[in-house]
């Protein structure tokens, strides 16, 4: 979870109200990776309209909120695939996917290989960590 804290810190360092709202949203996402999270829910928690929240989040992170969530889930899934022997369906459930097949398709769409091949080949590729977004690296 260190990368998530770095992201939140990077956003918060600008010390504006909207930056704090985005940082709190990132913290919420990171603490609830296994849960169903909607755009509407994130916007309401931030006290913003859905459209404004989406635009602000994308401006600050370089990703739409749901894309950010998916990338964080896949990043965490990669770590679990490399560091544990948990079955794919357990990792999928831990990342909020009830359907392991859907998780595998989402994983492959982001990383280019299915999770079984990722684990079996000992690959080191991971989805672009959100911290690599120029806005947050400043």
Entry keywords:
Arc Repressor Mutant, subunit A, mainly alpha, 9 helices, 2 domains, single chain, 138 residues
Describe the 3D structure.
This protein has 138 residues and is mainly α. The chain has 2 domains: 2-67 and 130-137; 70-121, Arc Repressor Mutant, subunit A (Orthogonal Bundle), CATH 1.10.10. Helices cover 69% and strands 0% of the residues. It is built from 9 helices and no strands. Helix 3 (39-46) crosses helix 4 (50-61) and helix 6 (88-94) packs across helix 7. The longest helix is centred in the middle third of the chain and has 19 residues, at 65-83.
Helix and strand layout, with pairings?
Layout: H1 2-12, H2 17-31, H3 39-46, H4 50-61, H5 65-83, H6 88-94, H7 100-111, H8 115-121, H9 134-137
Number of helices: 9
Query: Which range does the strand content fall in?
Result: under 5%
Number of strands: 0
The number of domains is: 2
Low-confidence stretches: 11-15, 131-138
> What is the N-to-C order of secondary-structure elements (H for helix, E for strand)?
HHHHHHHHH
Helical residue percent band: 55-70%
Overall pLDDT confidence: 83
The best one-word shape is elongated
- Structural class by helix and strand composition: mainly alpha
The radius of gyration over CA amounts to 15 Å
End-to-end separation in angstroms reads 20 Å
Largest sheet: none
What is the structure about, briefly put?
The chain has 138 residues and is mostly helical. The chain has helices at residues 2-12, 17-31, 39-46, 50-61, 65-83, 88-94, 100-111, 115-121, 134-137.
């Amino acid at each position: 979870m260190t990368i998530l804290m770095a992201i939140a810190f990077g956003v918060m360092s600008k010390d504006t109200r909207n930056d704090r709202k985005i940082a709190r949203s990132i913290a919420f996402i990171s603490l609830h990776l296994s849960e169903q999270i909607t755009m509407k829910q994130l916007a309401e928690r931030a006290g913003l309209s859905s459209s404004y929240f989406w635009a602000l989040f994308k401006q600050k992170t370089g990703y739409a909120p749901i894309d950010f969530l998916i990338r964080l889930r896949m990043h965490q899934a990669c770590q679990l695939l490399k560091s544990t022997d948990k079955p794919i369906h357990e990792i999928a459930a831990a990342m909020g996917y009830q359907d392991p097949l859907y998780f595998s398709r989402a994983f492959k769409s982001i990383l280019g290989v299915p999770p079984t091949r990722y684990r079996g080949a000992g690959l080191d590729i991971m989805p672009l960590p959100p911290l690599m977004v120029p806005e947050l690296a400043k």
